[in-house]
Amino acid sequence: MGGDVRVTVTRTLSKDQQARRERLIGAARELAAEGGYPAVTMHDVADRAGVARATVYRYFATKDHLLTEVAAAWARQIIDGLDTAAPQGGPVERLTALLELIVGVAADELTLTSAIIQAVTADDPSVDDARTALFLFVRDRLTAAIGEPLPEREEIEVVLGHVLLAALVSLASLRRPVDEVAAMVRTAGRLVLAGALA
């Protein structure tokens, strides 16, 4: 027969469980912002969140899984912030505004960004579902920012997602200046859309 079979179990959390899960995500985010990837241990997250250490593992299989959930919560917070002050203009302006906003926020919290990039790009199977959900959320928001029907929409979302990931790696790992990275995403967004809308 051979091969591993992977099963994902989804369950609805009670209000208390949801609050505990959010406390754990908040604690991990604080630790990552303070000391980067090495500062986030399941032991320290539990202590900071005020829960038993075994509790962390009820919600998150690994440190990388937890930090990927931190990334998802942070992405929603950043992008929801843009929704309240939606940029004006056409598709290119809206898309590049979103890309530049994400780059700017990531640059403002470089230690956290670096920890998240390390976790999200980890070769850790426990991260797969959370990473996929994160990438799909960001891709959907990039398309929503464009706001117009696009031919080959899925391919464009994938390309833009990779551009954004490359931008964040450039900031966090390669320590490129934020102005340079913002110019890169602006140019990439403009070129991708010019090709798609031509």
Summary, kept brief:
It contains nine helices and no strands.
How do the strands and helices of this protein lay out in sequence?
Blueprint: H1 15-35, H2 42-49, H3 53-59, H4 63-84, H5 91-108, H6 110-120, H7 128-146, H8 153-172, H9 178-197
Task: Provide an overview of this structure.
With 198 residues, this protein is mainly α. It has a domain at 62-197: Tetracycline Repressor, domain 2. Helix content is 74%, strand content 0%. The chain contains nine helices and no strands. It has helices at residues 15-35, 42-49, 53-59, 63-84, 91-108, 110-120, 128-146, 153-172, 178-197. α1 (15-35) packs across α6, α5 crosses α7 and α8 packs antiparallel against α9 (178-197). The longest helix is centred in the middle third of the chain and has 22 residues, at 63-84. The relative contact order is 0.12. Mean pLDDT is 88; it is low at 5-9.
Notable traits:
single chain; 198 residues; mainly alpha; Tetracycline Repressor, domain 2; 9 helices
CATH architecture of one domain: Orthogonal Bundle
* CA-based shape: globular
Strand content: under 5%
> Count of helical segments?
9
Per CATH, what is the topology of one domain? Answer: Tetracycline Repressor, domain 2
N-to-C series of helices and strands: HHHHHHHHH
Biggest sheet record: none
| Beta strand count | 0
User: N-to-C terminal Cα separation, in Å?
Assistant: 50 Å
Helix content: over 70%
Subunit arrangement of the protein: single chain
Radius of gyration over C-alpha positions, nearest whole angstrom = 18 Å
**Poorly predicted segments:** 5-9
CATH superfamily of one domain: Tetracycline Repressor, domain 2
Structural class computed from helices and strand pairing: mainly alpha
CATH structural class of one domain: Mainly Alpha
Mean pLDDT: 88
